[in-house]
Design a protein that fits this description.
Distance between the termini: 142 Å
CATH topology of one domain: Alpha/beta knot
Oligomer: single chain
CATH superfamily of one domain: SPOUT methyltransferase, trefoil knot domain
CATH class of one domain: Alpha Beta
Strand order of the largest sheet: 7-6-5-9-8-10
Helix content: 25-40%
């Protein structure tokens, strides 16, 4: 083999009768060769086996025809489901595997349904001299009374009433009372406590039937105030105070999206919460239906209603007062028997909810007196 390779590339000597052609002297380095197959070495025709990947397959003609027509289906691995390369999310080796339980919302602990007529457990602050004095007179349970060191005017009377009931009376600095009443003030100012604050239990709410029974015991036609979405506790306290002065038998408020009887409401009512029955219901419309079944007419306070001077407001009546901004809701308005309005003069076309309620209450009492 080595001898044959050495003879390649040599020119034949002159006079050599066995001279070879030029093609026979070309080196086969540029052609494919197989070490295990030396057939045809040094000859013109070499029978090398054709590679497998060069052999045609049955679908060649179909692929060629489809490419010419332009409807050859794209390969699924040519698609780019991740968008542009710069928009792809970089691979993070520290990323934790997805856990389905991680996105599940935590289950809320079991809460028992509220019991009707249940007394609020959170203590309330009775702020102001009138509120504390009326609470002491009505016999309401009070934990302790905080007063300033200066007992002037009616403050001495309050201290005397508290000691007669054998309650705990503590003299504190005025700054201490300012700190306690700060959450119930307006504009960053503390509420006007007038030098006295009392810790008392919450208001006991009643049912709508209790209000109707109270009117029946007095032998009077039911007169009830219904509040639909009154959110300001000061308006609530003002309405309760006006209801007591006008002789209303009770006030109905909602449990949701409505103000409850807090310390601010008790302060604004000047102690009227001790004498007026307050019912807190889940659905105002259902409470109105209960009043209708008891023979009570329902009048809604609305600017589009009939004037209160001509509206018939005598007899058993329930006056509905709406939200400070939106007024009475559509569903409650549809359940009212009629709408009543207050005649207005001037540039402002609306009144405060507490003021409007007081005007309608005393207009109803005026018509009853005729």
């Amino acid at each position: 083999m080595n001898d044959q390779r050495k003879e390649y590339g040599k020119r034949p000597a002159s006079g050599d009768t066995g001279a070879r052609t030029r093609k026979q002297y070309e080196k086969p380095y540029g052609k494919k060769s197989y070490p295990n197959d030396r057939r045809g070495f040094g000859s013109d025709e070499r029978d090398y086996p054709k590679p497998v990947y060069d052999r045609p397959y049955a679908g060649d003609h179909r692929k060629k025809n489809a490419e010419q027509k332009g409807d050859y289906p794209k390969k699924p691995y040519d698609r780019k489901p991740y968008g542009k390369p710069d928009e792809r999310k970089p691979f993070d080796r520290n990323e934790k595997p997805y856990d389905r339980r991680r996105d599940e919302k935590p289950k809320k602990p079991y809460e028992p349904a509220p019991v009707e007529n249940e007394r609020d457990e959170q203590p309330y602050l009775l702020i102001g001299r009138n509120a504390v004095r009326e609470a002491l007179k009505s016999g309401r349970s009070i934990d302790r009374v905080l007063v300033t060191t200066e007992h002037d005017g009616s403050l001495g009377e309050i201290v005397t009433l508290a000691r007669e009931r054998k309650l705990v009376v503590r003299e504190v600095d005025r700054k201490k009372l300012d700190e306690l009443c700060m959450p119930f003030g307006h504009g960053g100012k503390t509420a006007n406590h007038q030098g006295v604050v009392a810790y008392a239990a919450g208001v006991t709410y009643c049912d709508v039937s209790d209000i109707l029974d109270a009117a029946k015991e007095k032998g009077e036609a039911p007169f009830i105030i219904v509040l639909d979405g009154v959110e300001d506790p000061h308006n609530l306290g003002s309405i309760i105070r006006s209801a007591d002065c006008a002789g209303a038998h009770g006030v109905i408020i909602g449990k949701r999206r409505s103000a409850s009887v807090t310390a601010a409401a008790v302060k604004a009512s000047a102690g009227a919460t001790e004498y007026v029955k307050i019912a807190r219901v889940v659905n105002i419309s259902a409470a109105i239906a209960q009043l209708k079944s008891a023979g009570v007419w329902v009048a809604g306070a609305d600017m589009q209603g009939e004037s209160m001077r001509t509206a018939a407001m005598k007899g058993p009546l329930a006056i509905v007062i709406g939200n400070e901004g939106e007024g009475i809701s559509k569903l409650v308005r549809d359940n009212c028997d009629f709408l009543v309005s207050i005649p207005m003069q001037g540039h402002i076309d609306s009144l405060n909810a507490g003021v409007a309620a007081a005007i309608l209450m005393f207009e109803k009492k005026r018509q009853d007196a005729e």
